[in-house]
Amino acid sequence: MSSTRNKLIKILEKTRNEYVSGQFLSEELNISRAAIWKHMKELEKDGYEIEGKSKKGYRILKSPEKLSENTVQWGLNTKWLGKKVIHKPTTASTQHIAHQLAQESAPHGTIIIADEQTAGKGRMNRKWHSTAGKGIWMSILLRPEILPYLAPQLTLLTATVLADVLSKDTTIEPKIKWPNDILINSKKTAGILTEMQAEQDQIQYVVIGIGINVNQTTSDIPENINSKATSLQIETNNAFDITNLIQHILQTFENAYDAYIKNGFPNVKDKWESYGFRIGETIQIKTIKKNWHATFLGIAEDGALLTKAEDEEIKRLYSAEIDW
Ligand code: BT5
User: Fold this and answer.
1) Binding site annotation covers 284?
2) From the alpha carbon of 225, which atom of ligand 1 is closest?
3) 233 a known binding residue?
4) In this structure, are 107 and 222 located in the same domain?
5) Which among 13, 102, 235, 303 counts the fewest CB atoms within 10 Å?
6) Which domain holds residue 305?
């Protein structure tokens, strides 16, 4: 979106119920009144209802419900996250677009969102089912100044952000299953996919993919996953405003990320453990080589899974699947 449109949205948002004159807008934005009118027409295409009155000016009567670059930025209270938003009605995967934009020097904090993904990606080439218009399918492009081996901490940080937002915006109590699943009543409602491009000791960029099932009903969830997947709507019987949720996630993410860069992982660890699923219980651990049972102790200072086996040996695991 053009930075002029960004500024226009900011002004209209501040003055919400009052008229803003074309003259004022044209001076503030340094563009002609005809250009202002064109921008208003673009906003209308996105579903904004705009009233234009001669002598008084413009005012917004209604913001659209549909997702767009404008609606995500309308009222978004962030410093750097989501200053550039790309919205696609349908795409194979928002991760693909994010990687492409990253190679083309898109800035830290760029957001890619889609109404629908036709080839949504999970970890290890698994599929992520992304029902049209009913969930959040979003990638965040970051250029963090941290060492590559610390990047998995960003997955854990993102999980705490999603858990915080869901516990504030809904009546449910989310849990985090190590490392990247958000569960409600033991069923998965969100997943995170962190992908990275890095050299030996420097990250070029990280793409954090976030998938959240929001307004799906039971019949929207494919049969092969319906015993273990759920949505906010299924669990609460309420429909949620996807744009509001996205904005809340972005605002919470920005604060959490800035605090992490400043203070490191300890606070993230504590928060993660406060939402941790089955901490203190026996879990089944699966790696490519073997399966075994151990007590889940929590996460280590570096984000690793901490377990204690029957022989009391404490292990740190960095990549494994857990089950029970
Ligand atoms: C994940 O993988 O949980 C990461 C999901 C990330 C999705 C986002 S959406 C935006 C961005 N663009 C993408 O293309 N991807 C990211 P994993 O832990 O591997 O879980 C995948 C498994 O979860 C699948 O094998 C299914 O069993 C299950 N699954 C698939 N779709 C699901 C859904 N919508 N809800 C719950 N579970 C699902």
Assistant:
1) no
2) 27
3) no
4) yes
5) 13
6) 282-323
